[in-house]
Amino acid sequence: MSTNILVTGAGGYIGGSIVADFLTSTLPSLKNIQITAAVRSDEQVAALQTLKNVKVIQLKLDDEEAVANAILEHEIDIVIQTVSSVNATLSLPLVSALGKRKAQTGKPTYYVHTSGLSAFYIATGWPEGNTSDRDPLFETAKELRDSFPIRNTDVSITEKAKEVGVTSFIVVPSQVVGRGTGPYNQLSVLTPRYVLGAIQQKKMHRFPNDTVIPTIHVKDLTSLYAILVDKILTNQSIDANERGFYFGISFNLSTATFHAHLAPALKARDLIQDTNIDIWSLKEASKILDVPEGAVGFMFNSSGIINHHTQERLPGWQPAVTEDVYLKNVDDEITDVVELGEAKSSLLASLKTM
């Protein structure tokens, strides 16, 4: 008997890659699942319908009745939410609907939420010092929930899931790099903006400080989701609910090191004039990266010290892309931008209307 999984944001970078990579996974448990992909637009429907063995639906996630109907009609047991880490109203109806599904069938239901690492940055109000996934993250987030919307979303989801009897997990991706595998959007937001900005300016720029940013390749991130779902499907005991925070981090990337590798790769293609890297002001960065000044530091120049034990807590998950491998193949980031242009990102679109 197959298990039905709903992936929201399946037209996006992470969601689309999850759908595509689940379909090609070698995990035996994932051979026996039915994926329903939820998207927003007709264009995304057309793109996702090119995938075999995937049901594609359009779904407004803030419409509680529509969400409940979709969960019950498609007999969804597991939801992987990748749409919004900021707005809890796009997630709570999914949790409530899974609660109804459990009440209807008597079978367990599971909610896997995609959060954001910025919830654990000092710059957003998280306590100073090292943060570990062995810490009481939920309790701290609950105390600080009103100071940052992503924390409030994480807490609200966990509380709601407990209330309606749904088992919940919070996956916390770091900076995600690499080309995605989904059929609609294959570009992340951050790194391609650096590359595109440099190409447009014919010059590399950077912030005055060298920020060290936790990073993960997209194929290692989708592997994390796959291992997590495998643990669910094979009834293995793993941390969940208040203890169910899983950091998606493969390595820590120095921005200075990244730029030092990227500049000569761009110059080798004659996309920039020279390999010298200029320092930009906040205003210049905003213009070149094409995001509002208020979002520049938050999105592109923030970091946090995270001690994670994801490989121990999810046995079988082993990141394939290390820092050395990524930097050795940094030219791939340029190829992705040259071939694909700019990310089809709802986040970028919303920022530009600020």
Class per helix and strand makeup: alpha/beta
Largest sheet: 7 strands, parallel
> Termini, distance in Å?
47 Å
Strands of the biggest beta sheet: in what spatial order? 3-2-1-4-5-7-11
In CATH, what is the class of the largest domain?
Alpha Beta
> Which range does the strand content fall in?
15-25%
Please report the number of helical segments. Answer: 15
CATH-scheme architecture of the largest domain? 3-Layer(aba) Sandwich
User: How many distinct domains?
Assistant: 2
Q: Indicate the mean pLDDT.
A: 93
GO cellular component, one term: cytoplasm
Protein name: NAD(P)-binding domain-containing protein
InterPro entries: NAD(P)-bd_dom, NAD(P)-bd_dom_sf, NAD(P)-dependent_oxidoreduct
Pfam families: NAD_binding_10 (PF13460)
